Amino acid sequence: MTAFLTGTRGYVIRKIGWSLGTMLFVVVFNFFLFRLLPGDPIGLYSRGRNMAPEQLIKLRAELNRPIGAQFLEYLSNPFASTINSVRFNRPVWELVAERVWPTVLLVGTAILIASVAGVWLGIRSGWRRGGTFDRVTTGVTNTLYAMPEFWVGMVLLIALPFFPSGGISTPGVTGFLDTVLDTAWHMVLPVTALAIVYLAEYTSIMRASLVDELRQDYLQLARAKGLREDLVRRRHAVPNALLPTMTLIFLNLGFVIGGAITVETVYSWPGLGLLSYEALRGPDIPLLQAVFLLFSIGVVVFTLLADLLYAVLDPRVSTQ
Amino acid sequence: MTARSITWARRRTTLARFWRDFRSHHSAMAGLAILAVFALVAIFAPLLADPDGLNVAKATAKSHQPPSADYWLGTDQNGLSILTLLVHGTRVSLIVGLSATAIAIVIGTLVGIMAGFYGGWARSLLMGFTDWFLVIPFLPLAIVLATVLGASLFNIIVVIGVTSWPGTARLVCAQTLSVRSRPYMERAKALGAGDWHQMTRHVLPNVMPVVLAHVVLTVSIAILSETTLSFLGLGDPTAQSWGNILDAAYGTGAMSNGEWWFVLPPGICVVLVVLAFTLVGRALEVVLNPRLKEGR
C-alpha cells in the first residue's frame, strides 16, 4: 500500500483521489443545503411565481419522495436534463451550456493580458525591490487590489461613454469579420475592468516569487561565473520564479470567477456570471445549484491540473 | 520584584519595541490614520448626518440630483442625500467587516489549533475539511448561502464569516505544529499540564502574533466581500452599506446618465478602507514575523 502510494504515481493517485473526494463533497453539499431550509420547499422553488398546476404536482411528488431516494437520484446524475429552471422554464444544463463560451472568451482574454503584463511588472519590481519602480508598482498594486471589480467596471462606463454599455454584439451585424470586430469592440471595457484587478494579483504573485529566488545561492554562482546581471535574471531567476507563479495563476480560478460574476453583471455580458446573477435575483434555485456545481467542479479540476502541471515542471514535488 | 511585575515589565518593553518597529512603516501609519477617520465617522454617524435623512418617506429633494450646496454629493433615486447614505454606510460596512472577521478567526483558530495540537488523523480530517472549503470558489458559495439564508445584516455577517475561515485554519495549524515541537511544551507536559492548559497557555499566545496580522488582512477582504454581496442584492435592504448604494446606482441607470457622484464616492470609500487595512496588515506581518523582512 505504502509502496503503491509513493513516487510520481502515488502523487498523481493521491491528487486525483482528493479531487474526486472534493467533488463528492460539493455534490452532497449542493444537494442538502437547499433541502435543509425551513418552510415549504415549493415556495422556495417557485418564489410566488405562477406555475402550471401539473408542474406543481410533479414537483411536489418529486419532493415528497424519501430524501434518501432523492439523494441517490441526484448523486447518480447531477447533470440530469430533467432539472428545469424556474425562471426560463428550460433545462438548467442547456442554459448553462449556452453561456460557457462568452465567459471563457471574456475571462480568458483578461487573464492572458493580465498575466503577461503582471509577470513583466512583477519581474521589474521584484528584481530591484525597494527601488522607485518597485515602490510605485507596489502602491498601485495595493490600490488596484482594494477595488471591487464591478466598481472599476462602473467607473469605466461613466468615463468612456462611447464604448457599448453592455451585451456581446450589436443586433444586425453580419459577416464573419464584422462580427469578430463587433464582439471585440464590446469586449474592450469588461476585459479592461477584469484585467486591471487580475493584474494586481498576478503582479504581486510574480514579485513575491522572484524575491524568494533572489536569496538563492545559484544566483551568486551565476554572477561569480561572470554572467551579466541581465542574463542572471533572464536565464536563472525568472524561469525558477515563473514556476510558482504559473501554478498560482491556475489555483486562483476561484478569484477569477468572483470577478466574472460581478463584471458580467455590470456589462450584461451573456456568460455564466450574468447567469448566476439572474439565478440569485430570482432566486431560481435549480439554476443556482447548477451554476454553483459547475463553478466548484471547474475549480477542483483546475486545482488538479495545477498540481499535476507542477509535478511535471518540478519533479522534486512528487518524489518527496 | 514579584513574578507578576516582571511579566508586566517585559510586556511593556515588548509593546514599546513593537510600536517603534511599526511606526517606521510610513504607509502603515497612513493606513492607521485613514482607519481612525473612518472609525470616527462610523461612531459619530448620527451626529454628522441626521438619521432622518435615511428615511425615504421624509425625503424632500428631487431624485438623481447632481451635487449642490444643499446636497454635496447629490441625491439618489429616492431623493436621499448620498453623503448621508455614505456616512451611515461607513457604520454598516465596518460592523460587517469586523464581525465577520471575528467569526472567521474564532472558527479558523479553533480548527487550526485542534488540528495542529492533536495531529494524526484529527489533523488529516480537519485539514481535509479545510481544504475543501478553501477550494470551493468563495463568491458562488457566499451567493448560495446568502440566497438560502435570506437577506439580513446578521446573515451576511454569518455568510462572510463561515466562508472566510479556511485560510486562518491553515495558518494556525502550521504555527501550532511548530510551537508543539518546542522543548518548553515538553516541560509543561512533564509538569502535568493537560491538553487545555497547553493549548490556551502555551500554544495560543505563541500563535496569536501571526494571527493578528492575518486578522487585519481578513477584515479588508470581508469588507470587499460585503460590498460585492450587497451590490449583487444580497445585503440587508434596510441597512444602507456602500455596496447597497452601488447596487442602487447600478439598478437605476446611474452609469448611462453619467452620474459620477452616485458611483465614485462609495467606491472610493471602499478602496480607502480596504487599502488602509491592507497596509496595516502587511506592516504587522513584517513587524511580527521578522523572517518576512525582505533581503536579509
TrEMBL record, chain A:
<keyword id="KW-0813">Transport</keyword>
<dbReference type="InterPro" id="IPR045621">
    <property type="entry name" value="BPD_transp_1_N"/>
</dbReference>
<feature type="transmembrane region" description="Helical">
    <location>
        <begin position="183"/>
        <end position="200"/>
    </location>
</feature>
<dbReference type="InterPro" id="IPR000515">
    <property type="entry name" value="MetI-like"/>
</dbReference>
<feature type="transmembrane region" description="Helical">
    <location>
        <begin position="241"/>
        <end position="267"/>
    </location>
</feature>
<dbReference type="Pfam" id="PF19300">
    <property type="entry name" value="BPD_transp_1_N"/>
</dbReference>
<dbReference type="GO" id="GO:0055085">
    <property type="term" value="P:transmembrane transport"/>
</dbReference>
<keyword id="KW-0812">Transmembrane</keyword>
<dbReference type="Pfam" id="PF00528">
    <property type="entry name" value="BPD_transp_1"/>
</dbReference>
<comment type="similarity">
    <text>Belongs to the binding-protein-dependent transport system permease family.</text>
</comment>
<keyword id="KW-1003">Cell membrane</keyword>
<protein>
    <submittedName>
        <fullName>ABC transporter permease</fullName>
    </submittedName>
</protein>
<feature type="transmembrane region" description="Helical">
    <location>
        <begin position="144"/>
        <end position="163"/>
    </location>
</feature>
<dbReference type="InterPro" id="IPR035906">
    <property type="entry name" value="MetI-like_sf"/>
</dbReference>
<feature type="transmembrane region" description="Helical">
    <location>
        <begin position="100"/>
        <end position="123"/>
    </location>
</feature>
<feature type="transmembrane region" description="Helical">
    <location>
        <begin position="16"/>
        <end position="37"/>
    </location>
</feature>
<keyword id="KW-1133">Transmembrane helix</keyword>
<dbReference type="GO" id="GO:0005886">
    <property type="term" value="C:plasma membrane"/>
</dbReference>
<feature type="transmembrane region" description="Helical">
    <location>
        <begin position="287"/>
        <end position="313"/>
    </location>
</feature>
<feature type="domain" description="ABC transmembrane type-1">
    <location>
        <begin position="100"/>
        <end position="306"/>
    </location>
</feature>
<keyword id="KW-0472">Membrane</keyword>
TrEMBL record, chain B:
<keyword id="KW-0812">Transmembrane</keyword>
<feature type="transmembrane region" description="Helical">
    <location>
        <begin position="69"/>
        <end position="87"/>
    </location>
</feature>
<dbReference type="InterPro" id="IPR025966">
    <property type="entry name" value="OppC_N"/>
</dbReference>
<dbReference type="GO" id="GO:0005886">
    <property type="term" value="C:plasma membrane"/>
</dbReference>
<comment type="similarity">
    <text>Belongs to the binding-protein-dependent transport system permease family.</text>
</comment>
<dbReference type="GO" id="GO:0055085">
    <property type="term" value="P:transmembrane transport"/>
</dbReference>
<feature type="transmembrane region" description="Helical">
    <location>
        <begin position="94"/>
        <end position="118"/>
    </location>
</feature>
<keyword id="KW-1133">Transmembrane helix</keyword>
<dbReference type="Pfam" id="PF00528">
    <property type="entry name" value="BPD_transp_1"/>
</dbReference>
<dbReference type="Pfam" id="PF12911">
    <property type="entry name" value="OppC_N"/>
</dbReference>
<dbReference type="InterPro" id="IPR035906">
    <property type="entry name" value="MetI-like_sf"/>
</dbReference>
<feature type="transmembrane region" description="Helical">
    <location>
        <begin position="260"/>
        <end position="284"/>
    </location>
</feature>
<feature type="transmembrane region" description="Helical">
    <location>
        <begin position="138"/>
        <end position="162"/>
    </location>
</feature>
<dbReference type="InterPro" id="IPR000515">
    <property type="entry name" value="MetI-like"/>
</dbReference>
<feature type="domain" description="ABC transmembrane type-1">
    <location>
        <begin position="90"/>
        <end position="281"/>
    </location>
</feature>
<keyword id="KW-0813">Transport</keyword>
<feature type="transmembrane region" description="Helical">
    <location>
        <begin position="27"/>
        <end position="49"/>
    </location>
</feature>
<keyword id="KW-0472">Membrane</keyword>
<feature type="transmembrane region" description="Helical">
    <location>
        <begin position="203"/>
        <end position="224"/>
    </location>
</feature>
<keyword id="KW-1003">Cell membrane</keyword>
<protein>
    <submittedName>
        <fullName>ABC transporter permease</fullName>
    </submittedName>
</protein>
<dbReference type="InterPro" id="IPR050366">
    <property type="entry name" value="BP-dependent_transpt_permease"/>
</dbReference>
